[in-house]
Design brief:
This protein is mainly α. The protein has four helices and no strands.
Length: 81
């Protein structure tokens, strides 16, 4: 919900509904795996040291909804259910 996805799901005038799957978990896993791959690349290609990978559920969901921010900023448009 903090990522904004529940604001868009459901029918107009009714309460928000959950997605059919745990999308936040799946997206966070994808972002975490990408972070691990980039950390390994940094270590192997550039001789870097260890790195910290920080993944949050709401940030992963918000990343997928990032087009809403420029729409609001440019046009004041708030997407609805």
């Amino acid at each position: 919900a903090m990522g904004g996805l529940r604001h868009l799901t459901g029918e107009p005038g009714r309460v928000p509904v959950r997605c059919g799957i745990s999308i936040g978990d799946s997206l966070s896993a994808m972002h975490g795996a990408l972070g691990v791959m980039l950390a390994l690349y940094h270590r192997d290609a550039r001789g870097g040291e260890g790195q910290v990978i920080d993944v949050a559920l709401y940030e992963s969901v918000f990343n997928m909804m990032e087009s809403l921010v420029p729409e609001y900023d440019a046009f004041g448009a708030v997407r609805e259910r």
